[in-house]
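Fold it.
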Amino acid sequence: MRHPYQRTSLALTSVAVVAALAVVPFASAQAQAPRPAASAFGVNVQANGTNVVPPTPAVAVATPPGDATNTVVNVPASPVAVNGTLTATANVHRAADIPSGLTVVQQAVAGPYNGRGLAQIEGLGLVFAGGAPGVPLVSAALVRSEAAVVCGATPRFTANSEIVDLRVAGTAIPVNAPAQTLIDAISAALATSGVAAVADVDRNVVTQIAGGGIAVDALVVRILSAAGATPLAEVRLAHSEVTSAACTAPPQCSDGVDNDGDVRIDTADPGCHTDGNAANAASFDPNDNDERNAPQCSDGIDNDGDVKSDTADPGCHSDGDATNAATFVASDDNERDEAARATLPRTGAEAAFPLLGAGFAALAAFGFRLRSRIIG
C-alpha cells in the first residue's frame, strides 16, 4: 500500500485555460495577494511549510511591458541540494511577439505570446541526504517549464514542461512513454533504490490561478519523514506562471507611446516626472497613467519668469492674492493668468495709463473745438 503522500502522477499534455473558467489558487493566502503579470523561479524548498530555500533564482514582471532574467549555479539546502545551472525568465509585451521557449513539446495554445514565465535547469542533480551515496534522487540533462498567455477579448492561457534524460535514483525514466508506463517506471525506480518509503515525484504539475492565470512546476519532489505522513521537505523545480495582469494596459508612462502628442515618450516626457524635469531620472514615475504635464500651478516650476511659482505666484490665485491660500487654484495651467488679473482693482501705473489716455482725448477734443471757433 502506498504511503498517503506517495502519489506519483503525470500530465503529458499541455493545458490551456480561458479566463472565464473557474480557477483554483495554490493557497488561500497566495490567492489574496496580487500576483505579477509573469514570473518564474528555478527551485523552492520547503520544510514543514517553511521556506528552506526561497524561490531561487526568482524574477517577475509586475505589469506590462517588461523583461527580466536571472541565473544561479547550484543551490545547497538541507536535507537536499540542487545542482545545476538554474535560469528564470519573465517577459510581458504589449504586442504578441514572445516565442515559445519549449523545444521538445508544444503548448496547446500556439504563440507568439503577450506574457510568459520560463524556468530552466541545465544539468539537474537533486541530491538527498538519505539516498544512495553519490546517486542523485532526481537528475536530468535539461528541465524546462513555460506558462504563457495570448491576450485578446478572452485571454488564452497555456502551460507545459519538458525534461531531457530524466533519471530517478539513477534509473532512466522514459519521459515520452505513455502515462501509466512513466508512473510505473518512477515507482519502480524509487522502490529499487530503497527510498520509496521516503520520496515521491510528481511531473508537470499544472495549476490554475485564481483571478485568471496558470502555473506549472516541471517537477515536484517530496521527501517524507520516516515517522509519518508529514513531508520533511517539498522541492519545486522549474516553476513558471503568468496571470491576467499580463493583458492589462500599461500606464501611459511605461507603454512606449506618445499619449499626449508632445513628441516625447515615457522617461523623455516631463509629464512622467514628479518634478516635471525629464532630465531628472530620479523623478521618473513609470506608474503614472497621464503623460500630460502637470498644470503650471502645480509643477514646481516658475513658468512665467517672475521668480514665483505655484502657491507663491499671484497668477495661480483666483483673486491674484498669493497670501490667500483659499484662492489657490492647483489646476490652473497659466501662471500669468491675465484673465484673473483683469478683474483686479487698477491702481498705480496700471490705472494711470487709462487716465492719461482719457486726458489726451479730452485735450484733443478741446483743440478741435477751439480751431473750429477761430475758423468760423
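Residues 1-31, 340-356 have pLDDT under 50 and may be disordered.
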